[in-house]
Amino acid sequence: MEFEKTKLIELKEKFDSIINTEEKENIEFWYARDLQTQLGYKRWENFIETIKKARQSCENTDITVENHFREVTKMVKIGSGANRKLQDYMLTRYACYLIAQNGDSKKEEIAFAQTYFAVQTRKQEIIEDRIKLNNRLEAREKLKESEKQLSKNIYERGVDNNLSVRKMLNKRGIKPENLKPVEDLKKLERRVKSENKKMANHNKLPKRNK
Which DSSP letter does residue 20 get? Predict the structure, then answer.
């Protein structure tokens, strides 16, 4: 997803505004209720399902879930002035990244969050570079899928032509002449996975107070 400069700055400022810091160990974390709002989820019941998927993704990579997702209880005031308990989660950057990855990337906020939480710095230019990297990956994944479909069509019909190939690519938003000769797709995927692993290992929640 392409972002206009002004929209990118606006989204960045919104996500910056919900950062929390554990001062003793200087660890950044986010509360799920705050993240829910920024990701455009209206109902906690729907957002908690995305959190569950993200927790499962974390477990599937053999990373300790509790280091990145910690359930907490908040006391909030209700209309009568009384307090009631409210479920929430403390989340690391990696946890937020997994939540964004398990959300609907067609939503602008989630598409941005997938990049925002993937980088270790909040510098504007770094975020922009990562968005470009994601766009390259997405374009090459589309091209890869188109090549598979093309091979299938050629096999089934026994013949194909340049016009039908171009129509197929255009339907997927791909213009081959605009794809620059850049890193191999596998290299890009390995680079992203490597960065994600580092993020998971270096960003953990502070230890619980005993």
Answer: E
